[in-house]
Amino acid sequence: MKFQFKINKLALIRDTFVLNNDYRLKQKNFPFLFWTKLEKQLWEKFKNEPGYYLINPIHSDWAFKKIYILAEKKGIEKTFLNIAKTIRKIYKEIINSKEFKQLFSETQKYKIFVERQWNRNKNFVLSYFKNDLGLKIPNYTITIYIFHPKSHNGYADCQTKSILWGHPENWKNYTIVYLAHELLHILTYKKLKDFDVMHALIELATDNELRIRLNKKGKYFIPKQKKQMPLHIKKLFDLERKIYPYWKEYLKNRKGRNIFDLEKEIIQKLK
User: Fold this and answer.
1) Which residue of 56, 175, 207, 253 has the fewest CB atoms within a 10 Å radius of its CB?
2) Which domain holds residue 266?
């Protein structure tokens, strides 16, 4: 299995707008304060262009309404071709700005950090997947798209075999643990029977067991503030605790089983 680390400039730019807007709505300090000057300049120049709001989605609802009204008059193809030209123009201006150069430089430094941490630990992780989870390590390439560490990105696109990643290093080996988490989603998605059960097993296998093995200390279930969890995360956390005894028994005595066999056993026991 090969791994390549990339920065997609267009995705990085849009993600920065999205995060600033998210904090604006929550009335919190901007994570990218230096970016607000560029936002203001672009707003003054492109505020009447609906294409701008496909990059900065602050008023995307208004933009899409205008796009479809234009499409009724000019046709869908011509409307979206004109929008694409505007978007290319705006992206070019952003990429040439000093604000983007700062953003890209910080993201490049983070990319080096992530790549080094992964390369130091990948053999340990893949050995754990093979020997303890019973997985075959396929011979294909995983692309890891790196975002700014303030972005809180962590997502696996199983169909394209890619991971979107950018997050503060909250504790030692945080990045490797959660890259392993996303990688497990890619390695299991075609054969899993129940997404919730497999997701809970992935959390037990990486967020907990792998973290403890890498750091040579720690315990399961780092305290989480359940009151602040979204409902689907609370349900996942509760399911983890429920299946934890089956997971520990599996680690103690695999008997030739793999993580898919364990998933099937758990599904039967939860019926």
Assistant:
1) 253
2) 191-271
Q: Which residue type occupies 204?
A: L
CA dihedral 40, 41, 42, 46 (to 10 degrees): 100
Does residue 91 lie within any of the structural domains?
A: yes
pLDDT tens-digit map of 165-204 = 999 999 999 999 999 999 999 999 999 999 999 999 999 9
pTM of the predicted structure, to 2 decimals = 0.91
The tokens describing 41, both together, are 């300049």
Q: How far apart are CA 126 and CA 128, in angstroms?
A: 5
CA distance 163 to 173: 17
| C-alpha distance from residue 271 to each of 31, 173, 264, 265, 267 (Å) | 45, 36, 11, 10, 6
Residue 139 forms part of a structural domain: no
Domain presence at residue 21: yes
Q: What is the pLDDT of residues 218-268, one digit of tens each?
A: 999 876 655 566 787 889 999 999 999 999 999 999 999 999 999 999 999
**Domain boundary residue among 65, 81, 106?**
106
Cα torsion angle, 15, 13, 146, 156, sign: positive
Domain count, the chain: 2
Q: Is the dihedral of CA 269, 267, 208, 242 positive or negative?
A: negative
Tally of CB atoms within 10 A around 262: 23
Distance (Å, rounded) from C-alpha 220 to C-alpha 239? 14
Domain C-terminal end among 106, 134, 157: 106
Residue 114 domain-assigned (yes or no): no
Crossing angle (nearest 10°) for helices 195-202 and 174-188: 150
Residue with tokens 């046709």: 75
